[in-house]
Amino acid sequence: MLTRRTFLTTSALLAGGALLAPLNGRQQPASAGAVDPKLIEDLVAAYRVLAQHEVLDGFGHVSVRHDRSASRFILSRSLAPELVTAGDLIEFDLDGNAVDARGRALYSERFIHAEIYRARPDVKAVVHAHAPSLIPFGVTGVPLLPVYHMASFIGDGVPIFDIRKAFGATDMLVSDAAKGRALAQTLGVKTCVLMRGHGIAVVGSTIPIVVGRSIYLDVNAQIQTQAMTLGAGKVTYLDPQEAQKVMEAGENRGYERAWELWKAKASRP
Amino acid sequence: MLTRRTFLTTSALLAGGALLAPLNGRQQPASAGAVDPKLIEDLVAAYRVLAQHEVLDGFGHVSVRHDRSASRFILSRSLAPELVTAGDLIEFDLDGNAVDARGRALYSERFIHAEIYRARPDVKAVVHAHAPSLIPFGVTGVPLLPVYHMASFIGDGVPIFDIRKAFGATDMLVSDAAKGRALAQTLGVKTCVLMRGHGIAVVGSTIPIVVGRSIYLDVNAQIQTQAMTLGAGKVTYLDPQEAQKVMEAGENRGYERAWELWKAKASRP
Amino acid sequence: MLTRRTFLTTSALLAGGALLAPLNGRQQPASAGAVDPKLIEDLVAAYRVLAQHEVLDGFGHVSVRHDRSASRFILSRSLAPELVTAGDLIEFDLDGNAVDARGRALYSERFIHAEIYRARPDVKAVVHAHAPSLIPFGVTGVPLLPVYHMASFIGDGVPIFDIRKAFGATDMLVSDAAKGRALAQTLGVKTCVLMRGHGIAVVGSTIPIVVGRSIYLDVNAQIQTQAMTLGAGKVTYLDPQEAQKVMEAGENRGYERAWELWKAKASRP
Amino acid sequence: MLTRRTFLTTSALLAGGALLAPLNGRQQPASAGAVDPKLIEDLVAAYRVLAQHEVLDGFGHVSVRHDRSASRFILSRSLAPELVTAGDLIEFDLDGNAVDARGRALYSERFIHAEIYRARPDVKAVVHAHAPSLIPFGVTGVPLLPVYHMASFIGDGVPIFDIRKAFGATDMLVSDAAKGRALAQTLGVKTCVLMRGHGIAVVGSTIPIVVGRSIYLDVNAQIQTQAMTLGAGKVTYLDPQEAQKVMEAGENRGYERAWELWKAKASRP
User: What distance in Å separates residue A5's CA from the closest CA in chain B?
Assistant: First the structure.
């Protein structure tokens, strides 16, 4: 594992260096300036927390909206989540253009993040993952539902994005703005959207919330699968009113108690 | 992980310092005095053992009744179980009031513990957990039964607490005395109670017993789920008489053999 | 974990010291002399290998027949498997009497080992475990069968011991010679015997073989459960002739390749 | 675990020393010369990556075709995958003869590799494994299909090799050239072939690709099993056209992003 020192490596983003990047063309937008160091630290931790919980493996990514500009977000260069450090983070605009890529490869699916940030001003953080427990709910017609209070954030249901509907046979990737827009449209006002034969996109108003939702979405999917097997399909889910009450009471208290633990473990050598 | 030194950090409870806490109002009851150091050590170990066995994750808690007063119990401040040290433990009365909170956040569900201790003089330790294997048995109508001798402590059955019955649509939490009383009433004289769409509460006469029961309840749930799938629902459970004989013979010998191992692993850096 | 030094601690058995133990009564038989140090080393490793593979947890045990006397075998004192070192090993006769217990607590189920060694001269090592994957096959009437070549040693089937048949309602433990004899009788000439609502006993002609069989029995049970679910019960098992050919070819080559790895990992600090 | 130093131990193959080995008979073919050091490093990493992902356990193996000669390939001596270092690698010809065995035991199933390399000039790397998730698909008649984009490489289907068809009752091992040829024939132009009651053989044009395919074949099998249970058999798989588009777009980009992570973890002490 990375040492704590590597983990805390400062990035150009943190130092505000990106501000100085020359604007060489329309592909390189201006930076919105230095990012809140706390967001950088939390974003790096989020990559590792989600890898440690096996929500992400060698693929998938997490981003945060820039705290100084609603039209910028921060995402890693193309890299396996567990290896991401602050130095790998890049600022993007909502067209998916990097402020200062310096030749580094980019995630082809950065449009998932860009278009969700464009469509949903309330969203400050986005996760895209291929968690194995969730794939079956995108390919069987069985709705993913909250089997316990920790998953109350899906009390309003989880929509399914089938890329085939609007784009025919593709390589399944949300690799341009049009596909990102279609995904964001299917997401609507919900907290997450299943992607048929591919994975999930989860959103939240903070990094701890989007990480917490991703982790408990995975746990809930595992429990629901077991419950449906055990009960031959007859399962009592959380009542929509109950789910709403949990959300009103603060949705697992913002996952703060768990986030403290997760972040501590992510920074261990 | 925490070092062994941190793990053994003495607490105010251990030193008896809590005795000196001023009684500033009705929310701050008097302390029953210093707690047996062995109980403190075992309670801290219990938090970590249950986290290592994934019975607890970032949420859930375990408590022990004060050895000097039946009307006091010890529980951590609001903290993820794996991070709990002796310094985080707080003494409570049976109304869920902290003797000396010193501004620290408290678990909102401490009433689970308080009301069970009030209702059950034989209970000396309580666990509240959201173990994924157990949730399905609270939402499917399939009774949790002892599929092997290690789970003989549920030979008399496991009642299910549905918070909706007495309290309507809630945020699912047992966050006041009335809800705690209702839960304790459903528990009755049993060793544990499932909470629909939420989790479990487990009780015991010692910390090793409540930890052992929590761990083997989880294992038994996993085995039962597999057995019901394999046998298309036809499973031979332990005969009630057999379960009783196991209990009479000393219920897995008080889990002492396993507890020695679990505690050793919990104290490793 | 234990350090390598602790792991190799010499025992009285190894030094032959047990030979000097006074014969104070009929409960203390004479020792057969010092045990082959290689057997001691392998037996200690076996406890840890089986714990690392989760075939054993805080309970269960493994023994080896004494290399100098067919009427003696070596088993740990009552201790969680992962903690066993050479100094914890005790010599027993086939009535389950310890040569030199020195007041140490003994496993109450040592009669599983004693009576199998008595009934089966070909058996040199015995494992008793509660592996979760195996319990369902003892309580559902679904026969455990070899779903792949690594489990060819059950090509002749796995008998099920139901302690209730001969002993009525018990605490489920094989805690005396009569119960041990009944178990050995059900085992017959097979390689293992399921114990209804309890676990398994596995036998072999060497420590690596009994450990390898225990591990692959567990893996085979997991695969078979998945296969039966996937195939709605229709599964093509190894043909008895195929299983026999694997056994004739040397049964996974005595597990030597895997044993080298397992033992190396067991001795890591 | 092995230290990084051990992990990078140079081998005779790397130094080209094998070139000097005397040709003592028809069992000892000439070497094709020193192997590209990058291939050696990647092959050693592959053994450990597949063990860390539990695709291999104490058995199974992975090989690479020699970069200087299409009629030579590199495979470990008979050894558990997790223990393999560069010094254990041996050069073989396509008849399964070792260039310089120096008395070391060989995998009896090296003919899987030899005959696939002979039949498939496009194949540069081969894995043989007994991954538990895959066995059920070889014994139930349920076809293994791509449930998500990461498994697009099986969009053309996975053939099943039943050794019984051409060879009757055997010990299940592909332990000679005739059996290897039959397996290669069943594989045909596909990316992998299930072996009934035994395991899988996977092929690829690079080591990262054959490792990536092995890992995601295992994940896909687990997801498909869950999806079929959840959906009572009704599952929407990747459309063949979609799978083809993923392959044309570069099949998970050659697994490069994941391979960087996997190799980094494999070289950690």
Answer: 17
- Residue D141 DSSP class: S
The chain B residue lying nearest C106, using CA atoms, is: B257
B232 torsion bin: left (phi>0), alpha (psi -120 to 50), beta (else): left
Q: Kindly list the residues from chain B whose CB atom is less than 8 angstroms away from the CB atom of residue A254.
A: none
Catalytic (active-site) positions of D: 109
Higher pLDDT: D209 or A232? It is D209
Task: Please answer whether residues C98 and C63 qualify as being in contact, where contact means their C-beta atoms are separated by less than 8 angstroms.
Answer: no
Q: What is the pLDDT of residues C55-103, one digit of tens each?
A: 999 999 999 999 999 999 999 999 999 999 999 999 999 999 999 999 9
Nearest CA in chain C to D224: C230
Q: Cβ neighbours of residue C233 under 8 Å, at least 6 residues apart?
A: none
The gap between the terminal CA atoms of chain B, to the nearest Å, is 6
3-state secondary structure of D79: coil
Alpha helix (H) ranges present in D129-203?
135-139, 163-167, 177-187
Burial D31-61 (b: 16+ CB within 10 A, else e): bbebbeeebbbbbbbbbbbbbbbebbbbbbb
Residue pair C177/C97 in contact (Cβ under 8 Å)? The answer is no
Measured between beta carbons, which residues in chain A are less than 8 angstroms from residue B223?
none
Say whether B231 and C142 touch across the interface (CB within 8 A).
yes
Give the Cβ contact number of residue A3 at 10 Å: 11
Q: Where are the beta strands (DSSP E) in chain D?
A: 61-65, 72-76, 89-93, 125-129, 160-161, 192-195, 199-204
CB atoms within 10 A of CB D23: 11
Residue C98 CA from chain centroid, whole number:
18
SS3 D244: helix
Contact criterion met (CB below 8 Å) for D59 and D130: yes
Taking the C-alpha atoms of residue D206 and residue D126, their distance in angstroms, rounded to an integer, is: 9
Backbone angles phi, psi at D129, to 5 degrees: -140, 165
Contact: D140, C234; criterion CB under 8 Å:
yes
**Are C220 and C148 spatial neighbours (Cβ–Cβ below 8 Å)?**
yes
- The catalytic position among A109, A115, A248, A251 is A109
Q: Which helix (H) or strand (E) holds A73?
A: strand A72-76
Cβ-contact C181, C191 below 8 angstroms: no
Give the residue ranges of chain D where pLDDT is below 70. 1-12, 14-27
Q: b/e string for B102-124 if b means 16 or more Cβ within 10 A?
A: eeeebbebbbbbbbbbbbbeebb
Q: Which is the catalytic residue, given C109, C242, C256, C260?
A: C109
Reported residue count of chain D is 269
Give the C-alpha separation, B35 to B32, whole Å. 8
Q: Is B219 on the interface with C (CB under 8 A)?
A: yes
pLDDT digits (tens, 9 = 90+) for B160-186: 999 999 999 999 999 999 999 999 999
| Count, residues in chain C | 269
B42's CB contacts (< 8 A; 6+ apart) are B64, B207, B208, B263
- Contacts with A206 (C-beta within 8 Å, 6 or more apart), sequence order: A124, A125, A254
Q: Which residues pair with C61 in a beta bridge?
A: C128
Give yes or no for a contact between C183 and B133, defined as CB atoms under 8 angstroms apart.
no
Measured between alpha carbons, how far is C96 from C75 in angstroms, rounded to an integer? 10
Rounded to a whole number, what is the distance in angstroms from the first to the last CA of chain C? 6
Q: How far apart are CA A213 and CA A221, in angstroms?
A: 12
The SS3 assignment for B231 reads coil
pTM of the predicted model, to two decimals?
Answer: 0.94
The residue of chain D nearest to residue A51, with distances taken between CA atoms, is: D261
Spatial distance between the Cα atoms of A150 and A212, rounded to a whole number of angstroms: 9
Q: What's the distance, CA D142 to chain centroid?
A: 23
Q: What CA–CA distance (Å, rounded) separates D211 from D43?
A: 10
User: For residue A5, what are its two tokens?
Assistant: 């020192």
D106 in reach of chain C (CB within 8 A)? no
